[in-house]
Inverse folding.
């Protein structure tokens, strides 16, 4: 068994960055990824902090880390392992929903504060770029002038981060290395341990600090992720074996059906539909 839990699972990510005692960890992490390591964030409130999920399922662990900054900005932080159908649209939807949810009926639009959606992916989202961290805002098409900074999407693609521990130079480098390599480490590298917030993150991630219930949830979620990765691979292989467009489409459909079956006891119909692209009626028939 590894010394540290895998911070890329939803459960572990929320425990490390969204626990009540994780405020300083989260501030440092956000300063690194959003503000080039500068101490910009003075304070924040973690909304819906981590609690140990019920042992019968892992549905409760499928939550983003959400924080309200002292200046009124909302930041949504999500770790995504599987490249599911419609994921790009889901990120945009969640950011827009958080933006509009700030107002009650009759409130002035001037009261709206910016929303940043920070998404860390364990797969490549933008194959036409080698950039590890990319940022998107509303801009004019021709001269790229900003329309508004109120809605910003930030992506960090872990597969594109290939630095060795000796090459880590920035605070962002160190956090990305932590996310990608922590579960494979036997001890904390000195150049990461010297950062107080990263040192604390490793302490939260120690296997020995987890309860039996948390370890059980972690194991279930790891199996769940691997099963769904295998389902996606199976669908692609089936499609390729057919050697034609219909085969590819059928293989993709079968993979989504297998994912729906694996989620039936863990998520609602609407959540499964958002992940798989299947209709609620199709999902009801499947399960």
């Amino acid at each position: 068994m590894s010394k540290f839990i895998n911070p890329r699972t939803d459960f572990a990510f929320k425990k490390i960055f969204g626990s009540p005692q994780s405020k300083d960890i989260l501030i440092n992490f956000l300063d690194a990824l959003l503000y080039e390591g500068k101490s910009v964030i003075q304070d924040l409130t973690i909304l819906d902090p981590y609690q140990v999920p019920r042992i019968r399922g892992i549905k409760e662990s499928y939550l983003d880390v959400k924080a309200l900054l002292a200046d009124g900005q909302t930041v949504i932080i999500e770790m995504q392992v599987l490249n599911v159908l419609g994921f790009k649209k889901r990120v945009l939807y969640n950011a827009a929903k958080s933006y509009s949810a700030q107002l009650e009926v009759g409130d002035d639009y001037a009261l709206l504060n910016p929303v940043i959606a920070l998404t860390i992916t364990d797969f490549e989202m933008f194959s036409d770029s080698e950039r590890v961290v990319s940022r998107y805002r509303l801009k004019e098409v021709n001269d790229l002038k900003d329309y508004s900074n109120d809605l910003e999407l930030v992506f960090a693609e872990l597969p594109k981060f290939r630095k060795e521990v000796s090459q880590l130079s920035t605070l962002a480098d160190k956090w990305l290395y932590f996310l990608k390599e922590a579960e494979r480490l036997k001890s904390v590298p000195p150049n990461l341990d010297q950062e107080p917030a990263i040192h604390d993150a490793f302490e939260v991630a120690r296997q020995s600090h987890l309860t039996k219930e948390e370890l059980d949830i972690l194991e279930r979620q790891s199996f769940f992720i691997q099963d769904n990765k295998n389902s996606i691979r199976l669908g692609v292989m089936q499609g390729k074996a057919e050697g034609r467009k219909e085969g590819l489409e059928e293989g993709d459909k079968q993979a989504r059906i297998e994912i729906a079956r694996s989620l039936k006891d863990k998520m609602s119909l609407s959540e499964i539909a958002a992940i798989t692209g299947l209709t609620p009626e199709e999902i009801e028939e499947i399960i």
